From TrEMBL:
Keywords: Magnesium, Metal-binding
Protein name: Uncharacterized protein
Source taxon at top rank: Eukaryota
Xref: Pfam families: Methyltransf_7
GO molecular function: metal ion binding; methyltransferase activity
Length: 152
């Protein structure tokens, strides 16, 4: 089994994974956003529930005797926000590409809270926020992968 985590750095670089959620919050909170179009209570209630931790390496307090799996391998690498950024030189297109991938994760949460009617404009604002962010430079996030092996 493999477990994959997007991790943050202590210093928030341009590609830090926290920016995915900050820019998503900005799209939600924009003055052209959801305020006035759906109940104010829904906007106030909506909170970013992601938990993002900084990886320092090594195991901290793991119990080697417990559990069903052993970590057989751990790998840390960088990945570009836009998988096509070597071929796409347009920040607007890169913003749209990144927004599509994040939409796959965030759409169920947003649509269940605000309804499907808001999705198109919401993710359009999000893509614009990402494009503006990517104008500062190429963004890469950090990925941590653990390969687990079932204990015998």
């Amino acid at each position: 089994m493999a477990l994959t985590f997007l991790v943050s750095e202590e210093n928030m670089s341009i590609g830090d994974v926290r920016y995915f959620w900050i820019l998503l919050q900005d799209a939600r909170a924009s003055r052209h956003g959801l305020r006035g179009t759906c109940g104010e209570g829904k906007v106030v209630l909506f909170q970013n529930t992601s938990s993002i931790r900084t990886y320092h390496g090594g195991s901290q307090g793991s119990d080697s005797e417990g559990g069903l799996f052993d970590v057989s391998r751990a790998q840390f690498f960088e990945s570009s926000w836009d998988q096509f950024d070597d071929f796409v030189l347009d920040n607007v297109q890169s913003g749209a590409n990144v927004a599509k991938s994040i939409r796959a994760v965030a759409e169920p949460i947003i649509s269940s809270h605000f309804g499907r009617a808001y999705l198109m404009s919401f993710f359009s604002r999000y893509a614009n926020n990402i494009a503006r962010h990517l104008s500062k430079g190429k963004a890469k996030y950090h990925v941590l992968v653990f390969a687990l092996k079932r204990k015998e």
